[in-house]
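ingest -> validate -> predict -> emit
validate: passed (alphabet ok, no gaps, 323 aa)
predict: started
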Amino acid sequence: MYGYDIFHEKLMTTLINSVRENSNANTYIFEGPKGLKKHDAAQLFAKALVCSDVNNAPCCRCPACHEAQSGSHPDIVFVNCPKDRATIGVIPIREMITECLIKPFYNGHKVFIINDGDALTPQAQNAFLKIIEEPPQYAVFIIVCSNASVLLETVRSRAVNITFNPVSDEIVRSYIEKKYPNEPRIDFLVKYSMGIPGYVDTLINRGDFDTMRDEVLTLIPRLLSKNKAYAFEVSAYIDSHKENASEIYDMMLMYLRDAIIYASGESENIINTDKLEKIHLLASNYSMRILVLASDEIMLAKKMLERYVKASATALHAALKIK
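emit:
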């Protein structure tokens, strides 16, 4: 779409029309799971905002559009989380504000894309709040994040929240067939990606994906066991794979989901079809109440992880609560 690979064309058409009608807001939050090309969407929106031909933005012909496409437009500024840090502190935001007070190089908008908005510290958000309360007319801010709830309410209330939801299986299938035409596991990947095409790239390119799936499935009975000693085993496993903790929780949730579905007599909707025998054992050995409780606690653990709680602590909390 206008030079970008976008999964939410209707949503982006609405945003682009707001530029053409001069009705765009000053602050946006692009929220949704990783793998939905929110960053590309933010860049496309920025391209429309800086386009010289407002009535046809983005025209893809003017110098501004060409510079935006190449990533060299002087009025599109990116704020990223430093590679050596887990958060975006107040200094990058103050630098952004200083840059914001300088008028655009061209006559259009000046766009600031804050990637990894979940990583903004409260101090950084409070500094940001000062500029979005009374922004320059030419300034547009786009916060790209996975979970807007980690942002301060005072920031959220001053922004237009744009939600990027998981897409249809048809879109995911088309993405796989186009990018990985020789992939033999298309049906499984379509189900497993849960409407997030970008997740397919992770699944295909990770050499330890199948190994981790097996390990996590072995871990599920320990998670559900009444023996509290197993809680520490679960915590230790998560701690040893803390860089993949969120993905491990997703695997747990999918196995628990499958067990709940199997117990409900809807085995045709199971995702992990290659693990059907063990899914059957989970459904047979544990009550629906325990399976649902475990799912709720794992979802809570994921939210804790997003708030930068230590991975092992989130796992231990979930395992002990289930017991």
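The chain has a mean pLDDT of 95.
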